[in-house]
Amino acid sequence: MAFESLTDKLQDAFKGLRSKGTLTEDDVKAALKEVKMALLEADVNFKVVKQFVSSVQERAVGEEVLNGLNPAQMVVKIVNEEMTKLMGSETTELMLQDSKYITVIMMCGLQGAGKTTTAAKLAGKLKGKRKPLLVACDIYRPAAIDQLEVNAKKQEVDFFSMGTDVSSVKIAKSAMDYAKEHGHNVVILDTAGRLQIDEAMMKELRDIKDAVTVHHTLLVVDAMTGQEAVNVAEQFNEKVGINGIILSKMDGDSRGGAALSTKAVTGKPILFVGMGEKLSDLEQFYPDRMASRILG
Ligand code: GDP
Q1: Of all protein residues, whose CA lies closest to atom 5 belonging to ligand 1?
Q2: pLDDT digit string (tens) for 100-154?
């Protein structure tokens, strides 16, 4: 189960506080030291942890908290609030164009992150209110094209491919024409992933963006990879420009690092989380619910 170890450690830190009737500044600082260690062990970005703990400390050692009715509870509340803030405070909705127009969503990510699966999950989610078209722009892996086609069928949404002999830019452009002709108002481009970030991959994504108007560039990152997911997000944002992040594999035993640091490091919100392999396992991301879940 995700975050188990982080949740246990945070609860230990708070247990110490709760066992005391009144709190001193030193008590709070000692507990926050434990919180800091727990976050670092959960693979949260170092700078993010430092900033987070200092924000909590600033609020938690104030007169009002220490002399309040239930100081330990207040400290936990502050940690919860700051954690929510760290992950973006508000839920970020995926904004769609008016249904008269086509909203273009470009999915990107490293190979294996869950991009193709997530593209199909997203199409399924949007199917109720729009007419999505899933487009196979990965011209390097025929298996990825097949996988998208199979998933499109399962989701009962339309699928567009031109095989592997045409450039991804040409495919994206042709898909737009196809969508216009057939009345699709959401086009989801599934792009090629690589095992590692490379310049050619980034250029291909930029070329697609130059050729068609992409409204949302969504990056899928594997939550299980912790801080590496954050590094990946930083690089994609720098080199391609992303609007939002989808954290996949949050059903696994992720330690929490990616969920807690991606927004703070990249400035881009987490929109959805992948909660399993099934095509229905995509959930909206709620920072406040996630914070409460982490705190147990
Ligand atoms: P891509 O190479 O980025 O397109 O990755 P795929 O979509 O092919 O996914 C790689 C593997 O991760 C597949 O076995 C998926 O079923 C699995 N996967 C994707 N998303 C999730 C998720 O949210 N949870 C779990 N447990 N597995 C996932």
Answers
A1: 114
A2: 999 999 999 999 999 999 999 999 999 999 999 999 999 999 999 999 999 999 9
Spatial distance between the Cα atoms of 157 and 132, rounded to a whole number of angstroms = 6
Largest CA distance in the chain: 71
Cα(192)–Cα(137) distance, integer angstroms: 7
Please answer whether residues 189 and 105 qualify as being in contact, where contact means their C-beta atoms are separated by less than 8 angstroms.
yes
Backbone angles phi and psi of 84, in degrees to 5: -60, -45
Interface ipTM: 0.99
pLDDT digits (tens, 9 = 90+) for 184-221: 999 999 999 988 889 999 999 999 999 999 999 999 99
Residues with CB under 6 A from ligand 1: 109, 111-117, 147, 193, 248-249, 251-252, 274-277, 281
> Atom 16 (ligand 1): residue with closest C-alpha?
277
Which residues does 211 contact at the CB level (< 8 Å), separation at least 6? 169, 172, 173
